[in-house]
Amino acid sequence: xxxxxxxxxxxxxxxxxxxxxxxxxxxxxxxxxxxxxxxxxxxxxxxxxxxxxxxxxxxxxxxxxxxxxxxxxxxxxxxxxxxxxxxxxxxxxxxxxxxxxxxxxxxxxxxxxxxxxxxxxxxxxxxxxxxxxxxxxxxxxxxxxxxxxxxxxxxxxxxxxxxxxxxxxxxxxxxxxxxxxxxxxxxxxxxxxxxxxxxxxxxxxxxxxxxxxxxxxxxxxxxxxxxxxxxxxxxxxxxxxxxxxxxxxxxxxxxxxxxxxxxxxxxxxxxxxxxxxxxxxxxxxxxxxxxxxxxxxx
Length: 298
Known about the structure:
35% of the residues lie in helices and 26% in strands. It has 298 residues and is α/β, with parallel strands linked by helices. The protein has two domains: 6-60 and 194-213, no CATH class; 62-190 and 222-297, Rossmann fold. The strands form three sheets. The protein has a seven-stranded mixed β-sheet with strand order 8-7-6-9-10-13-12, sandwiched between helices. Strands 2-3-4-11 form a four-stranded antiparallel β-sheet. A two-stranded antiparallel ribbon has the order 1-5. Helix 2 crosses helix 3 (105-112).
């Protein structure tokens, strides 16, 4: 591990240095092991050894080529459409901000519905793609550096982005400032309850035979939120009336590949199971790979 490109961090929710190791990925000085941990104080799952902020930014600035898989595009559009329906009732100033706007598919759907669209994206390739294909003018850079008036937006969205940010609490506090009173933030995120369990399962399969863990779709980025940790994070950032929901899958292997038939079937079965348990538990059991939180500024 190149120590110049990495940093050791404390819990991004409560600030404690009280980690319980879940999955060791890095050797630390003094013979310790770091990697994916759970904070013993507040329960947040995060990486206590990670690339530093400059390295992460360089990685995302490189972005992805514009040769996108039709399956990837269809999956994103399906996920975005359902979120946008929920946001319609909060339109007042008619302005929406998408953080980590990517290639612009969500904002293009917003523009079709008459929203005034704003977006932040670190990848120059993605920004150029959004301009060329949808006429969107996105801010190219980090969200921390983007400048907008206070109380300017009706809605701010983070679609599988918050878990990549070095300081998610600061990002949500800034979001709170940018929203008008009564405005909402929407956060779609990878569900730690599912992905930690999936990671353990495929590690077990890999011990039996290394080829058995090739189907692993577990994702744990800088942070892995669950219902409790994202709720606390939103509350401490000033939000209220937090609602959590099961989120349909939009899986692909990468943005450049089609989904194989077996993977499509597996996704549909997993989606159906997650939906079933969600409904029979009167919407209290959230075991889907992705969840969505929506919260209002008072």
